[in-house]
């Protein structure tokens, strides 16, 4: 039976305090909802100890910001609703499902890293995601259903290896770190690779 837990925010900002959740602290078996109808307090969540959840939804009924200040592993999808904000510090965010960004992804560190660790994953939603560091794990495939880009100045190189894209999806402002993968100014339908792929903004 699927389980879920919703952020109430009635006690503190602490992700790891079970009193802030309707069904205990999220884990690999529980979908985490932040900003749904159960949000009745004044505190917005902040994770400062390593955490996991089955899936993560930010926003929905109430506008809310979730701040990630420690490693978080999401075993399925990350969904940022139109009134949701994910503020991401330097610890890595591991995502094994799809990335659906209809709201705001706000990386605040030069080391803000998102690692796609699943098998076949989609990056989509109505908002362009501004990744600073993007890693696609070995033998993973990412399908771009919307644009991704890199914030900050620097060289502007993009890479198609290990990625495939819809006709409107573009990768801009990213430098690809892999074993001499092909490069272009548009992803197109790139060749697949068994190597791990690492993308970050140019310096």
Distance between the termini: 47 Å
- Give a count of the beta strands, DSSP E runs of length 2 or more: 24
Order of helices and strands: EEEEEEEEEEEEEEEEEEEEEEEE
**Roughly what percent helix?**
under 10%
Gyration radius, in Å: 17 Å
Strand order of the largest sheet: 1-2-5-8-11-14-17-20
Largest sheet: 8 strands, parallel
Task: State mean pLDDT (0 to 100 scale).
Answer: 80
Q: How would you classify the quaternary structure?
A: single chain
Low-confidence stretches: 152-169, 172-203
- Structural shape: globular
Secondary structure tally, helices: 0
> Pairing-aware structural class of the strands and helices?
mainly beta
Strand content: 35-45%
Short recap of the structure:
The chain is mostly beta strands. It has strands at residues 3-6, 30-34, 46-47, 51-53, 55-58, 64-68, 72-74, 78-80, 84-88, 93-95, 99-101, 104-107, 113-116, 120-124, 129-131, 133-136, 141-144, 148-150, 158-159, 163-165, 171-172, 174-177, 183-184, 197-201.
């Amino acid at each position: 039976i699927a389980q879920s837990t919703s952020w109430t925010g009635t006690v503190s900002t602490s992700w790891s305090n079970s009193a802030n959740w309707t069904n205990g602290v999220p884990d690999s078996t529980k979908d985490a909802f932040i900003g749904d109808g159960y949000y009745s307090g004044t505190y917005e969540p902040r994770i400062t100890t390593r955490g996991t959840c089955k899936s993560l939804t930010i926003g929905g009924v109430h506008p809310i910001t979730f701040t990630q200040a420690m490693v978080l592993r999401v075993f399925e999808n990350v969904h940022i609703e139109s009134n949701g904000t994910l503020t991401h510090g330097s610890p890595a965010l591991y995502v094994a499902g799809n990335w659906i960004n209809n709201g705001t992804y706000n990386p605040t560190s030069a080391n803000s890293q998102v690692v796609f660790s699943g098998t076949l994953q989609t990056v989509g939603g109505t908002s362009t995601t501004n990744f600073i560091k993007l890693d696609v794990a070995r033998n993973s495939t990412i399908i771009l259903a919307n644009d991704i880009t890199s914030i900050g100045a620097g060289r502007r190189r993009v890479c198609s290896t290990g990625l495939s894209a819809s006709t409107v999806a573009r990768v801009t402002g990213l430098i690809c770190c892999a074993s001499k993968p092909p490069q272009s100014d548009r992803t197109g339908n790139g060749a697949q690779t068994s190597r791990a792929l690492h993308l970050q903004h140019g310096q």
